[in-house]
Give the backbone structure.
Amino acid sequence: MDILIFIAAMAALIYGADFIIEQSEKIAFHFDISPFIIGATLIALGTSLPEMAVSMSASFKGSGDIAVANVIGSTIFNISLVLGTVFLIAKSITPKRDLFAKDSSWSLFPILIFILMGIDGELSRFDGVLFIMLMAAYLLFLVQSNQVEEVDEELAREKFAWAKTLGLLFVGFLFVVGGADFAIDSAGNIARDFGVTEWVIGLFLVAFGTSLPELVVSIKAARNNNADMAIGAIIGSNVANFTMVLGFSSIVNPLNVDLNANFFDITAALIVSVMLVFITANKLYNKSAGIVMMTVLALVISNSF
């Protein structure tokens, strides 16, 4: 039964992603907003809802390790698996936006601040408020750095209807979030049937499950030759995971952080974040970079097990 639920949940994720990509592109063209900005805000925040739901629930129940492990694991999966997949399947990636100069640092700020906050062994409610402020600063930065790009004439000629667009967008997010939720539960049950430990489930299975929306949405965007939106969604989602997910979770209940015990996993998240900066600095948007990212992910999983 769990296997059938998992398959149905994946189908919901795929159909939901279709709605999100199509309607987000319409909103972008209607307001002359770059696809990158749409990806880094609307899509990134929407696909981070599963992480937020899982982590806030874990925090409320006093399982702070799951909340923190979920965010760390999601960062690793988002960059190595999701972005690596985008590089492997995209026909060509030529971002119109200078991702290194404008955006790459935002993939490092949150995790560096997280490490500084975790030195005392706890993410307090005050730390949570600071995280929320960081998210507000990121959104303000995106609004100020928006640049108008060439408009797809065929899509621009389509009649724009707010009711239809918002309705389909809502259905898309509902499918994505609901699909991720059922995928996590069913995958967790499958893992327990095979005797996998709770720690592995929290760090990898839950993190992978909550990264499924980013993976599906980014694959759809890459196949539609809209890699800018995919990359924006990854950077924005990682910012949202640290700022909003950990921010609200620590406000609900202060989170314990053991940097020494989780040194390897936190270091892995930091390394893949630095890799993203390196890739954008050298414009290595190709299949070779995708293979390197997949290799790093395989090493992380192998060492963690």
Q: What stands out?
A: Residues 36-147+196-304 form a domain with the A middle domain of Talin 1 fold (CATH 1.20.1420.30). The first strand starts at residue 122 and ends at 123. The two ends are 27 Å apart (CA to CA).
